[in-house]
Amino acid sequence: MIKLGEWQKLVIVKKVDFGVYLASAAQEKEERILLPVRQVPEGSGIGDCVEVFVYRDSQDRMIATTNTPKLVMGQVAELSVVQVGKIGAFLDWGLEKDLFLPYRQQNRRVAPGDKVLVSLYIDKSNRLCATTNVYANLRSDSPYQKDDRVRGRVYEISDNFGAFVAVDNQYSALIPKRELYGEVTPGEDVEAWVTKVLEDGRLTLSIREKAYLQLEKDGEKLLALLDSYEGVLPFTEKAEPEVIRRETGMSKNEFKRAVGHLLKIGAITIKDKVIRSTGKIEKTVL
After folding, report:
1. Residue 47 in 3-state DSSP?
2. Are 222 and 258 in contact (CB under 8 A)?
C-alpha cells in the first residue's frame, strides 16, 4: 500500500518517456504513481526499488519525488508562510507544491514570512495538509533534567491546564497554569526551566524564576509601573484579580508578594486605597 506523506521503497513497474510508474510490489497493477523522469535514478529499470516521498501534485494526483521535504508524517517542523489565501495559508516545505495550512488548523492567524510549527495530517478529501496541533507528534525522550534551562515554542493555551510548549520544536512540555507569568500567547518562543520530568518523559516547565529571584523581579516591575503612574498606583492588593492581571501582568498572589516585599524594604506605602512610591529605594538594590 502506498502511503501519503511518508518515505517508502517502491518498485518500478513501467517506464515511459516522462518518467517511471511505481507500485508497492512488482505484481501490483492497480495502484501506481509517477516518478518524473528528472528524478529517476540513473541506470534504474523495471523491477528496481526506489526510495521516494509520496504527496499530491497541483492537480491532486499522487506523485513520487526523490527530493527531501522539510516535514514528513509523524514529525514536527518549523515552516515559513509563503502566501495567505481565502481559506488558509501555504507553507514552504521544500517541494514543488506548497503545503496547505487551513484556517481552522491555525492556533493564530499567520502572515507571509511568519514561521509556524506544524505537523502533517490527511484531511477528509485524502489530501496532505498542515496543522499547528502538534501535540501527538512531539517526542518524550528529551535529554533534559530537572532545573535545566530550555527554550520552546508555545503552540496551545488551555484555560484548564496552562501553556503547551514544544521544547526545541520537538519535545513535549507543559507550563502549568499556576506557573504562567505575564502574557503568553500561541506562537511565542519562551525560555523556561524544567521543574519535573514525568514518568512518560514529558517535561513540566516554569517561566517563573526561583522564588527569591522572582520576588526581586516582580518588585522591580512594580516600581517601574509606579514610575509610569507618577509614583501613585490607584489600586492595592485588594483590587479584583482581573484588574491586577490587566495592569501588572501578575496574578493577585504574585502582586501581593511583590507589594509585601516593597513594604518591607520601605520602597512603598499604602494609604487611602492607593500605593505610593517613597523614592527611598533604588531598583538596582532590590
Report:
1. coil
2. yes
- Closest to 203 (Cα-Cα) out of 214, 213, 190, 216: 190
In degrees, rounded to 5, the angle at the alpha carbon of residue 218 between the alpha carbons of residues 212 and 221 is: 145
> Which three cell numbers mark 14?
513501467
Are 173 and 205 in contact by the 8 Å Cβ rule? The answer is: yes
Say how far apart CA 31 and CA 26 lie, in whole Å.
11
Rounded to 5°, angle at Cα 58 from 52 and 60:
75
pTM of the model: 0.70
Cα Rg of the chain, angstroms: 27
Neighbours of 215 (CB within 10 A): 18
Task: Report, as an integer, the average pLDDT of 5-17.
Answer: 93
Q: 112, 109, 130, 111: which is closest to 121 by C-alpha?
A: 130
**DSSP strand pairing (49-56 vs 7-16):** antiparallel
Query: In this structure, what C-alpha cell is assigned to residue 154?
Result: 508555545
Residue bearing cell 532590590: 286
What digits encode the pLDDT tens for the residues 40-52? 998 889 999 999 9
Cα-Cα-Cα-Cα torsion 40, 43, 49, 55, nearest 10 degrees, comes to 0
Whole-angstrom CA distances from 145 to 60, 98, 194, 196, 203 are 45, 38, 7, 8, 9
Q: Residue 205 corresponds to which cell in the numbers above?
A: 516547565
Structure-derived torsion over alpha carbons of residues 183, 189, 193, 195, reported in degrees to the nearest 10: 70
- CA gap 20, 33 in Å, rounded: 8
